[in-house]
Fold this protein.
Amino acid sequence: MKNSVIMAGFGGQGILLIGNMLAYAGLEEGKHVTYMPAYGVEMRGGTANCTVVVSDEPIGSPIVGKPDAAIVMNLPSLKKFESWIKPEGTLLFNTSLVSPEKQTRKDITVYPIPANDLATEMGNARLANMILIGAYVEATGVVSQESLINSLSKVISERNARFIPQNIEAIKLGARQINPSNA
Amino acid sequence: MTETRDLVKGNEAVAMGAIDAGCLYYFGYPITPQSDIPEYLSYHLPKVGGEFVQAESEVAAINMLMGAASTGIRAMTSSSSPGISLMQEGISYIAGSEIPTVIVNMSRSGPGLGGIAPSQGDYFQAVKGGGHGDYHLLVLAPNSVQELYDLTILAFELAEKYRNPVMILGDAMIGQMKEPLLREPPGEIHEYPKEWALTGAKGRPQRVLKSLYLKDGELTAHNWKLHQKYETMKESEIRFEELMTEDADLILVAFGSAARISRTSVMMAREAGMRVGLFRPITLFPFPEPQLTAMAKAGKRFFVVELNTGQMLEDVKISAQGNQVDFFGKPPGALPTPEEIFEEIKKIYPES
């Protein structure tokens, strides 16, 4: 098994954080992982993306031209990365910020998720990234939800540990967007 | 994999390697994309009894390093391309004075201020000199987070073994990427005799570390002595990795991040039934010329892939001794994808 995903959005949406989580989750499951961030000189509001590869075999390139999946949180990222996805690959995108008609490919599995709206309903708009990574893991099974949840303590500092429970709730809410019967 | 592996950023692996190699002093000035190295060491060096100094400039940092290392302790600096350029005078003095030091270049794009994207445009500077005079750095080119850690430890060893500055040449890609790291500190740090170190001359004859030789014939002899040292490195320290080269009709030659990307391209070519291999120099100086020459004599064809417009290419051409050498260069801006390099392989793969 080898699975690659590009995650992309505005700086500040927590793209690099969920990329780290997926890499930690893969590591916990004894898999080979690479996490490759790409960002320019921008700060919050600029663009950020990262590529995560999770594999049973040693990984060559951490750079991927045709990823198995993409998680897209804003329109510029959809425009840039939708065409990169492998045929029959997977796209999750944030319909709170990207209107569904902007999405064009028919040869991939598409999961439109109103991540910001769902997060706002939960009371914290910043959980949108957690909803998407929860949905991604449910949709692809690259790692288990349990490993993903365990990775939270690796990426969230002790100072902010009190926020972990709501992040777990957001991950589970994301998973339910894919599979409503998922607890 | 065991649970002792942790997900670590390349830059941090360098800093961990330095700590585990017994490095006690760091001098540097922050610059993207390597500032995680000083950040980590500023916190961890004092905890092991060392010192972290943020210098006022790269020029100051390299001279502080020269002074500290003159006493025989393990010390280092790190920077990225423009900062390494500023250090060249000091590096030349260190090489001339034969002071063991470790210098890390997580290179970015140039020339000039360039940008912060990964690049291999500093190959010539690292391998062919950079500073003035007839000297060489021993240059190590890691291509993974694990190797960044392991080669940093080796760098301190080799620096002392040869009394020579050792450069670790990485780039923004391997410095910024994260991978699992198995942090296994060497059980015992091998100490080389240091009868050159400036430790206070009380009760023993004075020692001098210098690069100025004015007496008749003195500098000639010094240069020949340095030359002999570089020849010994060529005999003893060449390191490389081969992947499926034995039956290959075409061998990709790439180092560091370019080798990492090329590895996947080679796998793609193999899946398509093409006999393609990868040769990865780990030491850039000494360059694995004898190994490449032997393969050229056996009829192998080389395809050099670099994140520049053709630098290591020259060394591969010398090694190939007239055999055909193809080249794919990607100057900074966007990294090549494995798919892109595979397309290039298809264009030149010899028809059978």
